[in-house]
Amino acid sequence: MSVERSRKVEAVVLRHSDWGEADRLLVLFSREGGKLRAVVKGARKLVSRKAGHLEPFTCVTLMLARGRDFWIVTQAQTVEAYLPLRDDLTRTGYAAYVVELLDRFSYEEGENRSLYRLLRDTLQRLTEETDLPPVIRYYEVRLLDLVGFRPELFHCVGCGKKIQPVDQFFSAGEGGVMCPQCGPKARHTRLVSMPALKYLRHYQRSAYSEAKRAGLPQGVRGELEALMQYYLTYILEQGLKTPAFIRMVERSNRSTSGDNESS
Question: What's the 3-state SS for 69-104?
Fold first, then answer.
């Protein structure tokens, strides 16, 4: 069986770290091969021509050559830099959350074009939209679908009965909604209001254009964010790092806005 010695891929840079004295190790999510790791020789040298193409959130085309442990980047060209994601800390935080979530849910197991398309679409939406939380909620719901953790939102995961239009419970352990009869009997459930569940269902079964038209009322935003973090933390067995950064930036923005209004 022949070993692939080189390949060309389109990929988004998820993160990078220092490697050796002057190199950089990239974690990529590629259209052709899913999650990959590749080394950029001399990337930390001032004269490196490749380094500028290989920052997190950047979409690039790469020529890769097989090395002993990792692929080696021999050529790099930017496809989309998503510059607004670097110019605004709020957008930076949300983009970092998007790539952290994909990084945590994906393994080096081969091509997954649906996940790649979701990643590209979400980064593009984060550069264009003015209202960012709905973009993130939609991304979370679609990601859960694609990685096999789609929550059950229409029938009670305890008794199987169809969910009625009243407030319900949600069980991360059981993977979905529980009715008012089953929820109190289960461990580690949390309440979910019917308005919040309504929007979560809509996001689960709709294209992004339809979800965007529905909007996301302020009254359910905090509840949905907390619910999704509860479920994601349970699945991943530990919390994510980027939500704390996003909250810090949002607090800073509110403080700055208040100072400007009082001056």
Answer: CCEEEEEEEEEECCCHHHHCHHHHHHHHHHHHHHHH
User: What is the spatial distance between Cα 200 and Cα 138, in angstroms, rounded to a whole number?
Assistant: 9
Token pair listed for 64: 């890769």
Alpha-carbon distances of 20 from 41, 44, 67, 159, 259, rounded to whole Å: 9, 10, 15, 56, 46
The owner of tokens 């229409």 is: 154
> What size, in residues, is the chain?
263
Residue 213, φ and ψ in degrees, nearest 5: -65, -35
Report the distance separating Cα 162 and Cα 136, nearest Å. Answer: 28
* Global confidence as pTM: 0.91
The secondary structure of the chain in percent helix, strand, coil, rounded to multiples of 5, reads 45, 25, 35
Annotated domain spans of the chain? 7-80, 129-241
Q: Are 51 and 42 in contact (CB under 8 A)?
A: no
Domain 7-80 has CATH 3.40.640.10: no
Element (H, E) at 117: helix 113-128
**pLDDT tens, N- to C-terminus, the chain (263 residues):** 455 788 999 999 999 887 777 788 999 999 999 999 999 887 655 445 555 568 899 999 999 999 888 899 999 999 999 999 999 999 999 999 999 999 999 998 889 999 999 999 999 999 999 999 999 999 999 999 999 999 999 999 999 999 999 999 999 999 999 999 999 999 889 999 999 999 999 999 999 999 999 989 999 999 999 999 999 999 999 999 999 999 999 888 887 766 555 55
**Cα separation values, 29 from 40, 91, 233, Å:** 16, 20, 22
